[in-house]
Structure formats: structure tokens, C-alpha cells
Design goal:
With 371 residues, this protein is an all-beta fold. 2% of the residues lie in helices and 38% in strands. It has 2 helices and 26 strands. β2 (36-40) and β3 form a beta hairpin.
Length: 371
């Protein structure tokens, strides 16, 4: 068994309470997962936790610290007729439960398909006989996005408070966005998309009247957003964008926002050309490859257990394992290094807003604050 060492490297004395440290405590220690990338809940008051595994499964278990086993909620290979790909950066990458899941049983996934290579966003249904199992033959494809290369797939999907589904896509892969997709409003690549539950452009999207733009685009200029999340208190969309050679970044995403790639990597020029005339929104925070090489976006803490953490955005780096936290209430805040986790590949909230971190090595951790 691989032992994951977790420690705190600093304390945060400016919390409004006594001096505290942020720590990452192993939870559900009897469980092990295959390349986990996302933790979420169904919003149905069932106190269940769902874990997305890149290899193609979604596991479910009761939120009980003594839990000993999981069950398979969803097996991608058995649920679709598409030929799937689960190598490298491809695989089962996203999961979102319908806002009315408790009544309609709908959930949505983002996965990689091949022949031809593409990203697929589909809706599935839960079995009426077993709420812990998806129903075979229930796939409804909402959207298929051609992928020129196997990397930079994005993959995060989540419903906003407006009831629309938001989708994060990478720039199509290779290196340096060779086709300049991220700045091309006619392309679905390198974007945050906003769609209705049928996959069509949501009402009020910023480019729906633009003749040369894809109407599903909400924001653009992204390289590979891994991952984004909504602040459940404010609705603010936070996205971490994986860098190219030198810089990783955290962004506050707004309607019609252009986040600069490939003209800029973070706040630094990457490939500026004669077309660089659009207003680019700088990241809220960036770090160099001295501290890590692949950012993993997290969540703003809104749980009740640790009031001193409320409003702090937590994220990490997949390669170095370095973890950070950032005070979202301070417009000039600098992210503070906290501890380390081996290969943090995703974050997630339970229904109460408590925050978890997933290690790609197969284990789960809870974000805690303690003296």
C-alpha cells in the first residue's frame, strides 16, 4: 500500500478566529479508487458520495466514515455504443446531476470517444428499480466536440444556479494551440460553454447574435481548464487553467470573458500576434513552474464545520502536490501555500458544503481547519 504523507507547511494567522492550520485528513480509508478525478453528490438528501474514475466508472457509497465498500453506479463501457478512449488525458472526465435529479433521475457525463476522436456530453437516467445504478440504454447525446489531438480535453461540467449546464473544453491539444482555437469564437474548443439540457445554446449567452460565433460560448481564451466550480453562496465561477511552459493560473470567469490564451500564458506574453486587440482578463492568481506544472482547480469553502475557512478558494498542483488557499473576499489576496498531497487530481463538495481532495493515487482527503 502506498503511504501518502500530508503535512501543513504554514499557518494562516489572519483568520478572524484563533490561529489555525489547514490540513488534509484521509477519509473513507477502506476505499480505493482507480484514477479518481471528481467527487460530487446528487443533491437529493441521500447522503451519498459519487466518485468519477477516469477509467470509466462512477462509484457510489454512503457518507459514513466506517464505509467498507462502494457500488458501481455507472460503467461507461457498458452504457454507450460509442468506442471510448481512456488513455492519457482521455476518459470519463465529468459528471453533473440534474437540478431536478430527485424527481427525474437525470445525470450528465463528459467522456472521450474515438473513431473519430471527440468529446461527448450525454444525459443518462438512473434505474427506477435501483437508485445506485444507471439505466442501460438511456443515453441521450447532447453535444459532440471534435478533438484534433488526445490532450487538453477539459471535461468539467456543472449546473449553475441559473439551471443551465456549463462545460469546460480544452484548446484541442498538441502544444501552443496550433490552430488558435481558444481565440476563435466559431470553435467550441478552449471555452466555457453554457447550454440547456438539450445541448442547445442557453438564453442570454453573450455571442448568440454574433454571426461568426458559436452561440454556446460563454467565455473563451482557455488552454485546458482543469477544473472549474461555482461558489455556492455567490454563484461566481472559478476556473483553473493549466499552463504551457511556465505559468499556471486561477481565473474568475465572467460572461464573454477572454482569458488570453494563446496570446498570454497567465499574465505573460506567449504568442502575441497582429490580432491581439481584444481586452484580456488577467488571472486572479498565477504561479510559476518552480512551484508546480499542472494546476488542479478546487472550490470555495462554504461548509459549516469551519467558519474561519468560509470564502476561501482551495486548489493544488497535480505534479508537485503543492496546495494553496486564496481569500476570495480580498481583491488583492495572494494565495497561501498550505500542505502537500500526492497528485491532487480533483476536488469536490458534499451536500453540506464540506470540501474534499482526491489523490490520483486512489485516496480521498477532507479539507479541515484545526488549532
Amino acid at each position: 500500500m502506498t503511504k501518502i504523507l500530508v503535512f501543513v507547511c504554514c499557518f494562516l494567522p489572519f483568520f478572524a478566529y484563533a490561529e489555525r492550520t489547514i490540513d488534509y485528513i484521509p477519509v473513507f480509508e477502506s476505499l480505493h479508487f482507480d484514477r479518481p478525478t471528481l467527487l460530487t453528490h446528487a443533491g437529493d438528501s441521500s447522503e451519498r458520495i459519487f466518485i468519477v474514475e477516469q477509467a470509466g466508472s462512477i462509484k457510489v457509497f454512503q457518507q459514513n466514515k466506517e464505509v467498507k465498500q462502494t457500488s458501481v453506479f455507472f460503467d461507461l463501457a457498458k452504457m454507450t455504443e460509442n468506442k471510448i478512449s481512456v488513455s492519457g488525458e482521455e476518459g470519463l472526465l465529468g459528471l453533473a446531476f440534474d437540478p431536478d435529479y430527485k424527481n427525474n433521475g437525470y445525470f450528465y457525463v463528459y467522456y472521450s470517444a474515438k473513431s473519430p476522436r471527440r468529446s461527448v456530453i450525454s444525459r443518462f437516467s438512473t434505474s427506477k428499480q435501483n437508485k445506485n445504478m444507471a439505466m442501460h440504454g438511456s443515453e441521450k447525446i447532447l453535444l459532440e466536440i471534435p478533438q484534433p489531438y488526445s490532450n487538453h480535453n477539459g471535461g468539467m461540467i456543472a449546473f449553475g444556479a441559473d439551471g443551465y449546464l456549463y462545460i469546460g473544453t480544452g484548446d484541442g491539444g498538441s502544444a501552443g494551440d496550433p490552430q488558435h482555437y481558444a481565440q476563435n469564437l466559431a470553435s467550441l474548443l478552449g471555452k466555457i460553454l453554457r447550454v440547456d439540457v438539450n445541448g442547445k445554446a442557453a438564453n442570454g449567452n453573450p455571442f448568440e447574435q454574433h454571426q461568426k460565433a458559436e452561440p454556446r460560448v460563454w467565455a473563451y481564451g482557455l488552454r485546458n481548464p482543469w477544473r472549474f466550480s461555482f461558489d455556492r453562496a455567490t454563484g461566481q465561477l472559478w476556473a483553473a487553467d493549466v499552463g504551457q511552459n511556465a505559468w499556471e493560473e486561477v481565473n474568475r470567469v465572467t460572461k464573454a470573458g477572454n482569458y488570453g490564451w494563446r496570446w498570454f500564458e497567465g499574465t505573460h506574453e506567449y504568442r502575441v500576434d497582429e490580432q491581439t486587440h481584444a481586452k484580456v482578463i488577467d488571472p486572479i492568481f498565477e504561479y510559476s513552474h518552480k512551484d508546480g506544472n499542472s494546476i488542479t482547480g478546487g472550490y470555495v469553502y462554504r461548509g459549516k464545520t469551519y467558519p474561519e475557512l468560509v470564502g476561501w478558494y482551495h486548489f493544488g498542483d497535480f505534479v508537485s502536490g503543492q496546495m494553496w488557499t486564496l481569500n476570495t473576499a480580498d481583491s488583492n489576496a495572494t494565495a497561501i501555500k498550505t500542505g502537500r498531497i500526492n497528485n491532487p487530481s480533483g476536488f469536490g463538495e458534499d451536500e453540506q458544503g464540506e470540501l474534499y481532495v482526491l489523490s490520483y493515487q486512489g485516496k480521498l482527503f477532507r479539507v479541515v481547519s484545526q488549532p
